[in-house]
Automatic annotation (TrEMBL):
Sequence ranges assigned to domain Transposase Helix-turn-helix in this UniProt record: 68-114
Spans annotated as Disordered: 1-21, 48-67
Descriptive protein name: Transposase Helix-turn-helix domain-containing protein
Compositionally biased tracts (Polar residues): 1-11
Listed InterPro entries: Transposase_HTH_dom (IPR027805)
Biased composition, class Basic residues, residue ranges: 48-63
Highest taxon of the lineage: Bacteria
Organism expressing this protein natively: Streptomyces shenzhenensis
Length: 157
């Protein structure tokens, strides 16, 4: 996976695959990724064939290397469809641009739909990498108590 942006050194590529962010277990994400990567390659080749108007003129692998790996494209699409953040933040996290994120989503979304895979939107929203780090922090208290009362049944008042 691409290197995560430097604003939040504690956020790793592994963190971006966290079930709280993707809405699925790491195993489910891995299975989905392994299923979609060959289809993503086939789809990209069909689109390029149509754009060229014919077969390749140069060998596969020549030319500029993509910013996002196929696995990154699938992950970034899932994160985007979960509506956690805008494409600009995803671009920062994957060291690329919002336009690259947009292209990845445009390429992967039809494959998810073709496999009847529905991504459920999350209620969590993030503006910075640090917001994601705080959200994933197991030490952070996620739910604040409704009151600062003592234990139920405490009659010491």
């Amino acid at each position: 996976m691409s290197t995560v942006a430097g604003d939040s050194d504690s956020l790793t590529p592994h963190d971006l695959r966290h079930p709280e962010l993707t809405g699925m277990t790491r195993e489910q994400l891995s299975d989905l990724t392994h299923t979609l990567i060959p289809r993503l390659d086939e789809h990209r080749e069909r689109v390029r064939h149509a754009a060229r108007g014919g077969p390749r003129r140069v060998a596969r692998g020549s030319g500029r290397k993509p910013t996002l790996t196929p696995a990154d494209q699938i992950l970034v699409t899932i994160l985007y469809l979960r509506r956690h953040s805008r494409q600009e933040l995803l671009g920062r996290l994957f060291n690329t641009t919002a336009m690259t994120i947009s292209r990845a989503v445009k390429g992967v979304r039809p494959l998810l739909e073709a496999h009847d895979f529905t991504v459920t939107a999350s209620t969590a929203r993030f503006r910075t990498p640090d917001d994601i780090t705080a959200f994933l922090d197991p030490e952070a208290c996620k739910i604040e108590p409704a009151c600062s009362c003592g234990p139920v049944g405490d009659q010491s008042n």
